[in-house]
Amino acid sequence: MTADLPLGTDALSVRRRVEGLEQLLEGLIALPLIGRKVGLDAVLGLVPGIGDVITGLMGLYLVWEARNLGMPRWQLWRMAGNVALDALLGVVPLAGDLVDVLYRSNSRNLRIIRKHLDRHHPGSVVIEG
C-alpha cells in the first residue's frame, strides 16, 4: 500500500489523497438492505462522542488539503461548514447516525475540490474506465 501512497504536493497527488480519504469516510461498505455505501464516518459515528470527533478531524483534513491547493477562502469556509454541520448533527443519538448516512459532508467537499482541480489544475484529471 505504501507504494501507491501519493505523498507529493502536486495536484494529482492531492487529488488521489482526497479521493481516497473520501472513499474511506463515505463509501467503504455497501449496505445491501438500503442500497447505499457507508464508510468510517457512519461506522465511527455509532461510537458516542469520540466517533464524530475523529471523523470530523478527518473531514477537516480535506479542508486543509484544499487550503494547500490555494482554494478561495469562501470555499474553505463552505467546506468547513459542511464538516461542522455533519459533526454537530452527528452527536444527536440515532438522528446523527442517519445524518452520517444521508448528508455525506466529505462527498460534498470532494466535489468542491474536484471542481477547483478541474478548473485550475486540468493535468490532474484522471479518466477512469
Fold and architecture overview:
The chain is mainly alpha-helical. The protein has one domain (2-122). It has helices at residues 11-26, 40-44, 50-68, 73-90, 95-102, 105-120, and strands spanning 29-31, 36-38. It has a two-stranded antiparallel ribbon with strand order 1-2. A hairpin with a 4-residue loop joins strand 1 (29-31) and strand 2. Helix 1 (11-26) runs antiparallel to helix 6 and helix 3 (50-68) runs parallel beside helix 6 (105-120). The mean pLDDT is 88.
Briefly summarize what is shown.
It is built from 6 helices and 2 strands; from the N terminus they run αββααααα. It is mostly helical and 129 residues long. α4 (73-90) runs antiparallel to α6.
Keywords:
129 residues, 64% helix, 5% strand, globular, mainly alpha
Number of continuous helical runs: 6
Please state roughly what percent of the residues sit in beta strands, choosing from under 5%, 5-15%, 15-25%, 25-35%, 35-45% or over 45%.
under 5%
Our count of domains comes out at 1
Rg from Cα: 15 Å
Mean pLDDT: 88
Largest sheet: 2 strands, antiparallel
Going across the major beta sheet, what is the strand order? 1-2
How far the N terminus sits from the C terminus, by CA atoms, comes to 22 Å
What overall geometry do the principal axes of the alpha carbons give? Answer: globular
Helix-strand string: HEEHHHHH
* Helix content class: 55-70%
Query: What is the SS-derived class?
Result: mainly alpha
Uncertain stretches: none
How many E-type strands? Answer: 2
